[in-house]
Amino acid sequence: NVSILWEESVCQRISTSPVIDGEGFVYVGCQDGVLHKVDPVSGSSVWTYATDGPITSTPAISDYGRIYFGNESGELIALDLEGRKQWRFEGQGAIRADILHIAGVTYIGTMDGNVFGLYDEGGRTGLVASKSIADDGKPLKPVWGTYMGNHRRTGWAADVDAAVETSAGTEDIPDAFFLSQNYPNPFNPVTVIEYNLPEQVRVRLEVFNMLGQRVKVLVDEQQAPGSYQVRFDATEFSSGIYIYRIHAGEYIRTRQMTLIK
Prior knowledge:
The chain is mainly beta and 261 residues long. 0% of the residues lie in helices and 44% in strands. The strands form five sheets. The chain has a five-stranded antiparallel beta sheet, with no helix packed on it. It has a four-stranded antiparallel beta sheet with strand order 1-2-3-4, with no helix packed on it. Strands 9-10-11-13 form a four-stranded antiparallel beta sheet, with no helix packed on it. Strand 6 and strand 7 form a beta hairpin. It is flat and about 60 Å long.
């Protein structure tokens, strides 16, 4: 038997599929340009966010607490899960296809034939770009943007504990080795670790507990020069401080991260 738990009229016409965050809250976009966050228990509206065009692309939610959605006016908007705008990217074509987000990169396709991959630094230092402006005045940089007919227009990143090169579509090579602080930090249960390689070397990236015991090997392979991201899923681990260490050629660096469940 099936029973209706609740029914709530949030707008005249819902134009996206619902998406659900880690706490069960439901998000839907409407033809009138308003995004709604709905309580999963009562069905009541928690907050709304109004835009300048109908929302027809199903949103995506990142594992560090942001929701991304587009509209017919060509806006891609990032909100935190409390409904506060983090940044806005404005293209020339309507955004109707579903939004994809993986390993810090948001992927969109627009009705004028463009495909974009945008790297969200999650509130850290902004990057130079021309069309996207964050609330703090710092612009957001597309990882790549290509036009229909260019065979490099598609991007791919595996949602597993593996390194993903983030400089796709560019020829920038870092001038030094560097291991970044993971983000978010503290985290639960997923975080991202970034590092730069100025030359081709064998890379080993490991995670240790405070007893010095190795609990995870994230990377163990030869890698080309570039900037990389690694997604670390600590679902199976208990709360506490962990150490991650990179060994790339003669470069060795360690940092701490905190898991809070």
